[in-house]
């Protein structure tokens, strides 16, 4: 008796391979009218690297991250963690609570007005009650983003560098200055800097940050105390802004980072 051809179930929806379609973050819906934004989380790109005095290129970060995020989109709801044996973001993705609001308007060579655009866009997102998840871009953008908040908040800064350079030579908007600006904002109640280890941190930066009352956790200390050792200064249920510089990771994992230097290996 001959066996007939196998029948394959094709499913009702699209397969949507990572190389297909418009690369919004995690294929979230795109919102171009912030006045109509209705979501819990708004993903926002800031494609500028004019705050990086050494190596350009991170302006392409938001686009690249969106493209790579498509590899994490599957037919299942949310994202399954085989260790925790649970799905994350299932409800948020199914209910359309995460949207991609596009990029801030960048004005090449006009850093001051670009920063005004960043603050304005982040402020619109906050005004609609959504949490901004911002993709850079170099780390100078943390300043105009935190400036968009009005309510009191605590800032936790993960980085190999303090980004606390003094304002000299007319420089104040580079990726080395952001947190000297941020700690002076009246709504910022504390600054905790975690993962500090680079030999490009100067004594002046370190002493100034500590003198301003900031908590500096070096990588060696972090290995000893873990996250519980620096969260004690942040009140329970307080608003927290988290700033993550990719170079806080072991830099051989991120060779395209503008800070790719031997400091990443000092505590490997």
Describe the structure.
- With about 270 residues, the chain is an alpha/beta fold.
- The protein has two domains: about 15-150, Arginase, Chain A, CATH 3.40.800; about 150-268, Ureohydrolase domain (Arginase, Chain A, 3-Layer(aba) Sandwich).
- Helices cover about 20% and strands about 20% of the residues.
- The strands form three sheets. Strands 1-5-2-6 form a four-stranded parallel beta sheet. A four-stranded parallel beta sheet has the order 9-8-7-10.
- Helix 6 (about 205-210) links the parallel strand 8 (about 190-195) and strand 9 (about 215-220).
- The N and C termini lie far apart (about 65 Å).
User: Strand share of the residues?
Assistant: 15-25%
Computed CA radius of gyration, to the nearest angstrom: 21 Å
Distance between the terminal alpha carbons, to the nearest Å? 64 Å
What's the arrangement of strands in the largest beta sheet? 1-5-2-6
Q: Name the assembly state.
A: single chain
Q: Return the CATH architecture of the largest domain.
A: 3-Layer(aba) Sandwich
Tell me, what is the CATH class of the largest domain? Answer: Alpha Beta
Order of helices and strands: EEHEEHEHEHEHEHEHE
What average pLDDT do the residues reach?
A: 88
**Could you say which overall geometry the principal axes of the C-alpha atoms support?**
globular
């Amino acid at each position: 008796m001959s066996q007939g051809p196998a029948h394959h179930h094709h499913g009702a929806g699209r397969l949507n391979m990572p190389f297909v379609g418009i690369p919004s973050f995690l294929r979230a819906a795109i919102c171009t009218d912030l006045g109509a934004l209705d979501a819990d989380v708004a993903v926002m790109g800031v494609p500028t690297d004019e705050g990086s005095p050494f190596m350009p290129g991170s302006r392409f970060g938001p686009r690249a991250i969106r493209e790579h995020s498509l590899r994490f989109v599957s037919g299942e709801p949310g994202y399954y963690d085989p260790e925790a044996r649970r799905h994350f973001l299932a409800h948020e993705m199914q209910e359309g609570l995460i949207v991609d609001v596009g990029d801030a308007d960048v004005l090449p060579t006009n850093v001051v007005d670009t920063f005004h655009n960043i603050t304005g866009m982040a402020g619109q997102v906050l005004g609609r009650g959504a949490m901004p998840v911002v993709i850079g871009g170099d780390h100078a953008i943390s300043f105009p983003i935190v400036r968009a908040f009005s309510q009191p908040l605590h800032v936790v800064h993960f980085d190999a560098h303090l980004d606390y350079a003094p304002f000299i030579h007319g420089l104040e908007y580079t990726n080395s200055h952001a947190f000297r600006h941020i700690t002076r904002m009246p709504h910022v109640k504390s600054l905790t800097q975690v993962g500090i280890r680079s030999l490009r941190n100067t004594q002046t930066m370190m002493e100034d940050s500590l003198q301003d009352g900031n908590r500096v956790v070096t990588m060696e200390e972090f290995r000893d105390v873990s996250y519980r050792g620096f969260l004690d200064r942040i009140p329970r249920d307080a608003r927290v802004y988290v700033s993550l510089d990719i170079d806080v990771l072991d830099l051989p994992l991120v060779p395209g980072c503008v800070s790719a230097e031997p400091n990443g290996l000092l505590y490997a």
